[in-house]
Amino acid sequence: MTFRLEWTDEQFEALVDHPDHKVRKILAQAVHVTPEQRATLVEDPDRSVLWALAEGPISLLASTWTLPAALPVWVGPPWAQCRR
């Protein structure tokens, strides 16, 4: 459920109103849910759902794949890499 690539508003609304807070918690951390859809869970009465919203989307890829560094990683100070 959390790795579904696209959620229609009808599908999402059906799960937002689900009586089990665990389903709503999983939905709050779904990767491909739009911010507008996720915002509908802000008034959820269960704290675990609110914590899940605060944590944000969870992806299994996050533990195995990292973004490339925004800046080069220096082994030492830049002046130490100059030729002498």
List the main descriptive attributes of the protein structure presented here.
84 residues; mainly alpha; 5 helices; 0% strand
Give an overview of the whole structure.
The protein has helices at residues 9-16, 21-28, 35-39, 47-55, 61-64. By secondary structure, the protein is an all-alpha fold. Helix 2 packs parallel to helix 4 (47-55).
**What is the approximate shape?**
elongated
Low-confidence stretches: none
The proportion of residues in beta strands is under 5%
Structural class: mainly alpha
Cα(first) to Cα(last) distance is: 58 Å
Task: Name the helicity range.
Answer: 40-55%
Number of strands: 0
Major beta sheet summary: none
In round numbers, the mean pLDDT is 76
Radius of gyration: 20 Å
Order of H and E elements: HHHHH
Annotation field: number of helices: 5
The gist of it:
It contains five helices and no strands. With 84 residues, it is an all-alpha fold. Helix 2 packs parallel to helix 4.
Compile the SSE list and pairings.
Layout: H1 9-16, H2 21-28, H3 35-39, H4 47-55, H5 61-64
